[in-house]
Amino acid sequence: MKNSSNAPYSNFALPYSLTSEAYFSEKMADLILNITSSSGLKIKHIIDLACGVGTACLYFSNKGYEVMGVDISKNMLDEAEKKAKKMGYNIDWVQQNMKDLSVIRKADLVTCMYDSINFMQNNDELFHVFKKVFDSINHKGLFVFDMYTILGLGTCWGNQDQIHTDIPGHFIATKTTWDSKTKIATKTFHGFMQINEDWKRWEEKHVMSAFQLDEIKDGLTQSGFSSISIYGIDGFHLSDVSDSTKRILIVAGKGK
Ligand SMILES: C[S@@+](CC[C@H](N)C(=O)[O-])C[C@H]1O[C@@H](n2cnc3c(N)ncnc32)[C@H](O)[C@@H]1O
Questions:
Q1: Ligand 1 pocket check: which of 20, 97, 119, 128 to mutate, most ligand atoms within 8 Å of Cβ?
Q2: What residues contact residue 225 under an 8 Å CB cut-off, 6+ apart?
Q3: 8 Å CB contact between 247 and 114
Q4: Which of the four pLDDT bands, split at 50, 70 and 90, describes residue 79?
Q5: Is the pLDDT of residue 13 over 90?
Q6: Residue 151 backbone phi and psi in degrees, to 5
Q7: Does 223 fall in a domain?
Q8: N or C end of the chain: which has fewer CB within 10 A?
Q9: Per-residue pLDDT tens for 183-204?
Q10: The pTM is what?
């Protein structure tokens, strides 16, 4: 599987890697390890779905876990691999659509961070990923992921045109749309990348969907997960979910 030149996270891979975007998942990885250690789960092997440029994988690897990073984007994985090589970490990188997740070795913990699950466009796709993840986890293992709520996607993405990135060699402006009926948001990246003396123009469209809490719970239960906890995340602290919650963290367990 390759990246076509305007596929999501093809041209965006390098600026993503260079900006602070990547540090979200480092903080999330730390939060997730705190949660899992208090659950008493013994973790050896972690799979990070939609691993992007590998920030969480590097963090887990540094803590001594065996790690596999899965992403649909070759360019994101290339950035991840470069970083891991430079830091001397041995991480398996796999280019796969999470809807087709298929692993040789099951994990004790599967993570998916920074709203990447919102890339699933409808309940069928979402539930399909849940089932694939369930099949990739060891007995008593956990699936921990964060995602935008409907309010979060609508307000954080919806109708917020902005200058997204302005760093030497990269300029990106984004235009967004939000449809409250379908709960689908789009963000079109209009990017400019300096190559020697010239500037290359590129464009990518990212499409994300939001889901009701009940839909998420039903999908996880139907996929076989037996314990499901949903928290609000506010500045990397867990809270109760309320009408004003924009991002949630879900901890789903396999087996009692
Ligand atoms: C917002 S980035 C998050 C990356 C990383 N988790 C982080 O926290 O920095 C979303 C990632 O999801 C990946 N992605 C989107 N759809 C995917 C799919 N269907 N299967 C696997 N990865 C996907 C993108 O390629 C991108 O790397």
A1: 119
A2: 130, 134, 143, 252, 253, 254
A3: no
A4: very high
A5: no
A6: -60, -40
A7: yes
A8: C
A9: 999 999 999 999 999 999 999 9
A10: 0.95
State which ligand 1 atom lies nearest to the alpha carbon of 112.
6
**Ligand 1 surroundings by CB, under 6 angstroms:** 9, 22, 24-25, 50-52, 55, 71-73, 76, 97-99, 113-114, 116, 119
Taking the centre of ligand 1 as the mean of its atom positions, its distance from the CA of residue 71, in whole angstroms, is 6
Q: Are residues 188 and 166 in the same domain?
A: yes
Regarding whether 186 and 82 lie in a shared domain, the answer is no
Co-location of 174 and 238 in the same domain: no
Mean pLDDT computed over every residue of the chain: 93
3-class secondary structure, 128 = helix
Please give the pLDDT value at position 20.
66
- How far does residue 72's CA lie from ligand 1's centre (Å)? 7
Same domain, 173 and 226: no
| Ligand 1 atom nearest to 25, measured from its CA | 8
Domain count along the chain: 2
Domain range spanning residue 161?
Answer: 153-208
Q: Give the C-alpha separation, 58 to 56, whole Å.
A: 5
Q: What is the pLDDT of residues 97-112, one digit of tens each?
A: 999 999 999 999 999 9
Q: What is the rounded average pLDDT of the residues 216-234?
A: 96
Question: Do residues 58 and 70 both lie within one domain?
Answer: yes
What contacts 38, CB < 8 A, 6 or more positions away?
none
- Distance from chain centroid for Cα 88: 24
**Atom number of ligand 1 nearest to Cα 16:** 9
Structural domain includes residue 23 = yes
